[in-house]
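Question thread 4412

I'm putting together a teaching handout and wanted feedback from people who do this every day. The idea is simple: show students a protein as raw sequence, then show them the structure tokens that encode its fold, then repeat with a second protein so they can compare. Below is the first pair exactly as I plan to print it.
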Amino acid sequence: GDVLIIGDVQASTATMRLKPTTGNGTTPGTGTPGTGTGTGTGTATGSYRTDSWHIIDPNGKGFIPKGFNVGGYNNNGGYDESAHLNPTTLQHWKSLGVNTVRVTVNLTTVKSWGWMNNAKAWNGKYGLAGMADYLNTLVSTYRQAGLITMIEWHDFTDGGFSAAQVTQAAQAWTQTANQFKNQTDVWFNTANEPAVTGQAWTDFQMQMVKAIRDTGATNIVILDAPLGGTDGATNGKARDLAKPVRTAYPGNLILSQHNYAWGNDGKPLGNTTNYREWALANQAAGWPTLHGEIG
């Protein structure tokens, strides 16, 4: 399957792919998207998009995103936001095979984790207007280096959400989606590791995707799995809980799992057999899958 594995915020890069059902395990198969053979090929559209469980690049070729996380806008106050905008750094990343960077940002006034309490102030430079300026610079710099920018909302890491918080998040995503509407090298990761599961997870993701799609943006949207991104819920895997979201907003949706060897009904995905079982089930359900973090 099309799988991205990226380390946690300051980890080094790591990549992995499932062995295709045809081909030799290193060279992708050349099957049509949706047939379950290799990474697939499709029609060149000039856009990044999904086709069944494949990710397709602007030239119509199967695409496997590879990269890592960086601490970005308003996040944790201790990260040097200029470090990952240095052209020399970006070229080093490219030499390692990196093509995608997940940028962790705080979009609302709420910080659920204690270590986020030192984040830069919400008002003034670091309000929504400040975020827009920062993201413009970041996306432009990454685009020049040939990198995809994945913008990820980190505020409610491993936490639940109040109605007011969800409203703030939807407003932030509406602004961000309008800002990068149909710039398909910019992907939107709705929220980091939501702790909720079941209908609460479905409802939350539906609201975030609605906020994005109502702007007319067709960019790829990534949904972190329930229960802290582990996809360990016993009352429904992300592939099942996300069905209503895909029905309402079909196309260009990706599921993301964070692999820290916990959850998954007691079957950690660090086990090769369990990982393959999980990934192939996502593939059979027509879901592109990536690992947003691994550790």
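The second pair follows. I'd like the answer to focus on this one:
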Amino acid sequence: FKWSQAIMLAAHCLRIPVIAETTALEGDSLLVVRGSRLGWLSYKCVTGARMIVNISPALGDAAFATGLPAERQAVIPNDVDTAFFTAPASNVAKADLKSKLGLDGSWLYVICVAGWWPNKGIDRVLDAFSAVAGDHGKVGLILCGPKNETATEPYSGRANYAAYIHETIIERDLAERVICTGYTEDIDLWMRASDIFVHAAAVEGFGNVIIEAMSTELPVAVLSIPGITDWIVSDAADGFVEPTVEGLGDRVRTLCDEKLRKAIGSSGRQTVLQRFGTELVMKQYVDLYRNCL
């Protein structure tokens, strides 16, 4: 039972209309809420809302599975600032940015933006990249995100996931190819300097970094999460969606072709402008609020 749910309960008592939002399959989806400690109370607080906004169809499916009717739900995605996440103005500008970040201008760089938690799949990214590195001499990997020094690796019982990632990089002789930025507020710069975006999380609520990469005109290759990544990305149209890590590696290898990278990156930008731009998403919320008054 959380403070947000307590606030909703107070609003219900005062007869103030409530619109609730679900954002994470393993966090606040209605299936998780109902199964939590004091779940019956939490579930009653959330489902007492006039409308439930799910940021992806997968979260909508979870809500529907608890018995919440479709007419009391809406799917409204997260948004991206398309003026902030943009591609470099020219190849020269990109080369200059690579130089400023200490990157080799003659290399291609694959970027993964994620914290070092097991569910974010940094190990799966390394698996996919390892296959590509064996075929291409000038391809690097940028792991952009904070390292969780306490997270465990659940599949093998390792006590420290970050240590496991570092060990894997060394064991596979990738130390000269992998750049670990740690926590950074310059994600937009690292994306602009990169050439391919890869995402291998096992579970998400949405995947903001995917639409940020698409907005930056990075071609994306993502692991399939039904109702989430395959809803954001249309396979082979504005990115690639793969069900396996092996397939993910194949797609990254395919995107080493410059012509294909540019075509997919441009299509991804158009998808974001048509579906995920801030003004478009905010309009959906405004319309929802008006309908609930």
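Top answer:
Good format. For the second protein you could add a caption like this: The radius of gyration is 21 Å. The mean pLDDT is 92.
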